[in-house]
Amino acid sequence: MPARGPAPGADHAGHRARLRARLLAEPQSLADYELVEYLLTLAIPRRDTKPLAKALLREFGSLAQLISADPESLRRVEGLGDGAIAALKIVQASSLFMLKGEFRDKPILSSWDALLDWLRADMGPIDIERVRVLYLNTRNMLIRDELVSEGSIDQSAIYTREVIKRALELGASAMILVHNHPSGSPEPSRQDIAITRDIADAAAKLGIAVHDHIIIGGSDYRSMRAMGLL
Description:
Helix content is 47%, strand content 16%.
C-alpha cells in the first residue's frame, strides 16, 4: 500500500502554526503583511490569506492606511467580507483607544506628545479633510472631542459662532482646533490661519482660550502656536 501523504491543508495549517508561534514569541519580528495575514485568518479560517494580505497592503499603501480605511473602500476589495473588515477595524479602534488613554484623564498640555501620537494615528492616514475641536475644562482636561466639518476647509466652512456656542454649552474654558491635510503637507494655508484667528478672537471675548490649531499631514504636523500664528 502506498505511503499516505500529508492531509489536505496540512502545510497550510503548519504555516499558520509557525506564524502564531512567532506572533506570541516575537511579535515585532513579523512583517506588515504577516500581521494582516494572521489577523485575516481569524475571520477567514479556511483560506490562505497571505495573497489577500499582500493585495490589501498594495492597494492601501501601508498598514496604517489599511486599518484606517473606511468600510466602503475595504468592501471594494474582492474577497474581503464584513467579518474581515470588522477585524481590521478592531485593530484601529484598539490602537486609538490605547493612545487616547495616555491623556484622557490628564491635563492635555502636560501630555502633549501623547496627544500628537493619537492625532497622527487617527487623522494622518485618512484621505478626506476633517476638522475637530477638542473642548477642555479649567484643568485643561478633555471634555469632548467633536467633528465639526468634513471636506476641504474651503468647501466645508467652520462656523465660528457654532464652535463658540458649543464651547459655552459644554462649559469649556479652552479648546484646541485640529484638522488634517490629505495631501500630506501640514503647512497651514491662508484660509487655515484666517479661520483660526477668527475663532480665537471670538473666544477671547468670552474668556475662552484657543491653545492651538494643530494640522496633521501624514505622520508630520504643524502647531500654529509654535509657528507664531496664534
